[in-house]
UniProtKB/TrEMBL annotation:
KW Membrane (keyword) present: no
Family statement: Belongs to the short-chain dehydrogenases/reductases (SDR) family.
Stretches assigned to the Ketoreductase domain: 7-198
Ranges in a coiled coil: 38-65
Name listed for the protein in its UniProt record: Ketoreductase domain-containing protein
Residues of the full protein shown: 52 to 312 of 312
GO molecular function: oxidoreductase activity, acting on the CH-OH group of donors, NAD or NADP as acceptor
Organism: Arthrobotrys conoides
Keywords of this entry: Coiled coil, NADP, Oxidoreductase
């Protein structure tokens, strides 16, 4: 808690699921954190800000609408972010924004779905990272935590695009960590297995019944479970890098190894 006290943390995709839970977990761990909460849905972010301010009077929260899949929007975001108060103070970036669309097989995947997954999960994460690296290098400090997935390690049929985006996150993260070995900047990837969030509702394009079926007879992880790990990774002594973490619920042994009751 002491190590995270007063830290400035930027979270992408904070409007739901893991990102939202991560914001709350940082505040529970260090009540005086300073959070920059971003996503496309501003209303959810404003609600989260109110919830955080009720939880801790000492937390500072800045809400910013940001679509990471749009390079121009990322540029606008950084240009508008108050320099001395927020940008120059940034300590931690959590690249969490991401999504999956559909289960179609190669040959049948809509171009729009390919683009939204790559532009969000890969290009968005790269662009956000490129924006903070110069800041972190100037201070020879900073932590980048990327949310990957078991899907990046174990590709499955019907997941060619999503799985390959998460494999890209993994490779990008590893190159970056190696590029930064002469610095004090930390780079981590956390790969969750099955987590119940809005993830499957988005995958099935709003079909709640299909999304619920994904979690029938199993006990998935919650956003809070992953949030606790993000905050743990961020809160280690500055010389400690928890480089790589794979997290399953107990019924899961791999992307397609699942025990159902
Ligand atoms: P949710 O759908 O609940 O949350 C996804 C978040 O990403 C939302 O806040 C959404 O906000 C945001 N987001 C999506 N597209 C964009 C965009 N273009 N720009 C900015 N923000 C965006 O799912 P999860 O919490 O589960 O997902 C979080 C991360 O965890 C993702 O990277 C996902 O791939 C990964 N993951 C999830 C697993 C799971 O089983 N749930 C397992 C392994 C990894 P908004 O719509 O407001 O923009
Ligand atoms: C989410 C995990 O296996 O449903 O990243 O794609 S999986």
């Amino acid at each position: 808690a002491k190590r995270l006290s007063g830290k400035t943390i930027l979270i992408t995709g904070a409007s739901s699921g893991i990102g939202r839970a991560t914001a709350l977990e940082f505040v529970k761990t260090a009540p005086d954190v300073r959070l920059i909460l971003t996503a496309r849905r501003q209303e959810q972010l404003e609600e989260l800000k109110t919830e955080i301010e009720t939880l801790s009077g000492a937390a500072e929260v800045l809400v910013k609408k940001l679509d990471v899949s749009e390079p121009a929007d990322i540029k606008r975001f950084w240009a508008e972010l108050p320099k001395e108060e927020w940008k120059d103070k940034l300590d931690i970036l959590v690249n969490n924004a991401g999504l999956v669309k559909g289960f179609e097989h190669v040959g049948d995947i809509a171009e729009e779905d390919v683009n939204i997954m790559y532009n969000t999960n890969v290009t968005g994460l790269i662009n956000m990272t490129q924006a903070v690296i110069p800041l972190f290098k100037t201070r020879d400090a900073g932590t980048i935590i990327n949310i990957g997935s078991i899907a990046g390690r174990e590709p499955y049929p019907g997941g060619s695009i999503y799985c390959s985006t998460k494999a890209a996150v993994r490779a990008f993260t590893e190159s970056l960590r190696k590029e930064l070995v002469s610095t004090r900047i930390r780079v981590a990837v956390i790969d969750p297995g099955q987590v119940e969030t809005e993830f499957s509702v988005v995958r099935f394009r709003g079909d709640k019944a299909k999304a619920d079926a994904v979690y029938a007879g199993v006990e998935p992880l919650t956003g809070e479970d992953i949030a606790e790990i993000v905050v743990f990774v961020a809160g280690r002594r500055e010389n400690v890098v928890i480089a790589d973490t794979l997290v399953f619920p107990s019924h899961q042994g791999g992307a397609s190894s699942m025990h159902r009751k």
